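Exam revision sheet. Question 4 asks you to relate a sequence to its structure. Input first:
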Amino acid sequence: MAITMYQADRNYVTPANDGSLYSAMLNDTSGIINNRGNNFALTADGLVISIDTGQAVIGGRSVEITALESVTVPANSSGSICLVVDLTKTNTVTGDAGDPTYAVAVNQVYTSAVTGTLTQDDLNNGGFIYELPLATFVSTATAVTLTAATGYLNDTGWLTLPNATGLVIGSGGLTQYRVRNNVVYIRLQALDTSKTTNANQIGTIPSKYAPSITFMTAGMDDSSGTPYGIELHVQTNGLIYANYVSPHNGGIGGTITYPLG
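Answer key, structure tokens:
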């Protein structure tokens, strides 16, 4: 038969079957599970990075660090501290299945300091390697600077919006977006669009997070000292711009929220 059901009586479920199911349930998202262990907290001692306990899901595979792991970063370089699922590796088995002495040394997951472009294959469609960054690093001959890189599962954390050319961000201003549980959140503050295209562009949300329909929401300009209502627009190509009545484009702010799909 060319059809099967893995969760069937007496059937055999492989790790690949299991991983594909869990990945689908998590919208094919890989990331850290919040509040497990110490959330992979990183500490540096010279060029040695210690990675604390935590749990993650990578391509539907559950990964856990149960005691401190360490990675040595190459000197005078930059890259990412990663959890790596590598299906090209072979796990080592001792004893016989079903016996108390049976054990598996899992070689298909490890930590690594990765320089260059990350490999993030689709593990459920023929891919073999997925490198999940916990932090980016820049090293000198003797020390490392770390910057957190991965949000919690189904939560990107706050990221900087790719801004329009010419956008001026005033004191205390920001352009940020966050995707959490398939909802996009955007927050804007103290923006001057007067030097952008059409004097109204703010930035562009990455295409994979763009809305399925063009829509408008309320915003505000307070450049004159008195709040003035304006329109904030989000297009299906991800472009965010403001409709305003001149000269109310010098202190733009607001929040935008919409579901994906």
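Marking note for examiners. Helices lie at 15-25.
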